[in-house]
Amino acid sequence: MQRIRALSSFTNVIDDPSHFKGLWNEDIFHNDHSITLELGCGKGEYALALAQRFPKQNFIGIDLKGARLFIAAQNALELQIENVVFIRMHAEKIAEVFSKNEVTEIWIPFPDPYPKKARKRLTSTKYIQLYRQILSENAAIHLKTDDEKLFEFTLSTLQQENCAIQEVIHDLYDQAKRDELLEIQTTFEKRHLRDGKNIRYIRFSV
Predict the structure, then answer these.
(1) Does 112 participate in catalysis according to the annotation?
(2) Across residues 108-127, what is the average pLDDT?
């Protein structure tokens, strides 16, 4: 609870994100660089790693769990990463926070697979429709998961929604050559790898 209260004092945590809809570059980042979201960012491992690799791009981590966001925001401040900010909110509100064409890329690393609640999955039809409201044309969405059912569900949903599936990998670490961005590992991924699970990946556009 103490960490959640402390979030309001962090300069890189946005308290009222809807206020900046259509104005993220102008009012928050003060540049015209592209914006990438990490949904369910947890401790922000992906957002922070990407922000360090691409200083001329902007990154926003979104998660509902304040204790995890505290770690993400604190790490960003300690590392002096200025091109990343964080929002504590549910991902289903993204269309209230971002305008059409305002976001150019989305990363979804190891989301909750919701085995009994398909509608809540971040690759369900509900979310595909939300992504269409904020993404620029042909913007890439990246999913990494250890969950085979979520993986297959996602492929089926993308086909039903007529999305463009650009890359499918059933076992990421069985690949002879890998994109270095796919080798960024979250806490969850490290745990899954220790447990001997396959890491699956899909890149698509809506």
Answers:
(1) yes
(2) 96
